[in-house]
């Protein structure tokens, strides 16, 4: 079983429940610990969640065993591991691979490949906790948690908007400002299950865009998303007149790239287990890098 140890340094007695929730344990996880085989210990003895603890007490959280994702078919196609420790796995996803299984991609999504990766490494019952997702034709970094506690921590970080994600994109036209702040609400387009659009009754969405290079009649930009709406960068860039190259949904006549030119190249978040910031980068993939290099030659 997975265990986490903490020492209470406060001066006033508090409930053990309060203390471990300050370390990221959610109410849902508390219930699982209580009813599904986990435990909470104070100085080595099992206690109830309302037990009071004092300065210097040693608290241990024992996670309950997790059942594997039996419905997930392992795929043994390779994955590009960008970072891994006992709590997190960050994968550099190729374009063309769906993040999660569906009726179309039931056996070879990134989740299936991570399941196969764990199986090959002797963890066939490892439950798959995907934290962030990318569109099928977007490449780049995707975060997985290795247990419920790590997933809970990052779910809260997503809600608090403390997971930093940066993307590289090639867009049509040239941006005249050094920085663009796009705050436009996004909702589902009428008559479409897939397409999104800007609409007043949509959900708040906020993107910062920084031009990196002029590539003739297109530009390489860096985009930072402060919210996580479906197709957010694609919709926002199209809305300000700079749609992504190769985007079949929002720039359908552009064939300069075989897929939308979008890559999640940087993620960072605070890891409370190691008490440090995790920061990971993934270089621009070959197709985008080749396009940028070719346009640099033309521009030069």
TrEMBL record:
**If you read the UniProt record, what top EC class would you report for this enzyme, in one word?**
isomerase
Instruction: Set out the biological process GO terms recorded for this chain's protein.
Output: enzyme-directed rRNA pseudouridine synthesis
Q: Which residues form the signal peptide?
A: none
Keywords attached to this Swiss-Prot or TrEMBL record, sorted alphabetically, are: Isomerase
Its UniProt entry gives the catalysed reaction(s) as: a uridine in RNA = a pseudouridine in RNA
Alphabetical list of Pfam families matching this protein: PseudoU_synth_2
Which residues does the entry assign to the active site, renumbered to this chain? 135
* The UniProt record lists the keyword Isomerase: yes
Show the PROSITE patterns listed in the entry: PSI_RLU
Say which domain of life the source belongs to: Bacteria
**The protein's Enzyme Commission number:** 5.4.99.-
Q: Which InterPro entries match?
A: PsdUridine_synth_cat_dom_sf, PsdUridine_synth_RluA-like_CS, PsdUridine_synth_RluC/D, PsdUridine_synth_RsuA/RluA, RluA_PseudoU_synthase
Q: Which residues form the Pseudouridine synthase RsuA/RluA-like domain?
A: 87-239
**Entry function:** Responsible for synthesis of pseudouridine from uracil.
Family affiliation: Belongs to the pseudouridine synthase RluA family.
Protein name according to UniProt: Pseudouridine synthase
Q: What is the protein's species of origin?
A: Lentilactobacillus curieae
């Amino acid at each position: 079983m997975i265990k986490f140890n903490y020492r209470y340094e406060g001066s006033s007695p508090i409930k053990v429940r309060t203390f471990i929730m300050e370390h990221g344990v959610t109410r849902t996880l508390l219930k699982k610990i209580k009813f599904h085989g986990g435990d909470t210990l104070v100085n080595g003895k099992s206690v109830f969640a309302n037990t009071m603890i004092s300065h210097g007490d040693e608290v241990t959280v024992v996670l309950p065993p997790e059942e594997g994702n039996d419905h997930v078919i392992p795929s043994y196609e390779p994955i590009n591991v960008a970072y891994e420790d006992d709590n997190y796995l960050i994968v550099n996803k190729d374009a063309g691979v769906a993040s999660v299984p569906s009726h179309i991609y039931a056996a070879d999504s990134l989740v299936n490949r991570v399941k196969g990766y764990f199986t090959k490494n002797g963890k066939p019952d490892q439950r798959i906790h995907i934290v962030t997702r990318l569109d099928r034709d977007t490449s780049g970094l995707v975060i997985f948690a290795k247990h419920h506690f790590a997933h809970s921590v990052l779910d809260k970080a997503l809600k608090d908007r403390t997971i930093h994600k940066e993307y590289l994109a090639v867009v049509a036209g040239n941006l005249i400002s050094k920085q663009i702040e796009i705050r436009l609400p996004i909702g589902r387009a009428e008559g479409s299950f897939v397409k999104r659009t800007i609409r007043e009754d949509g959900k708040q969405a906020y993107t910062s865009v920084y031009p990196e290079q002029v590539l003739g009649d297109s530009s390489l930009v860096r985009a930072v998303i402060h919210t996580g709406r479906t197709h957010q960068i694609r919709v926002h860039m199209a809305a300000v007149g700079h749609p992504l190259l190769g985007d079949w949904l929002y720039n359908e006549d552009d064939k300069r790239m075989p897929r939308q030119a979008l890559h999640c190249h940087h993620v960072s978040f605070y890891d409370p287990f190691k008490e440090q910031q995790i920061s990971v980068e993934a270089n621009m993939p070959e197709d985008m890098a080749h396009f940028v290099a070719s346009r640099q030659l033309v521009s030069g």
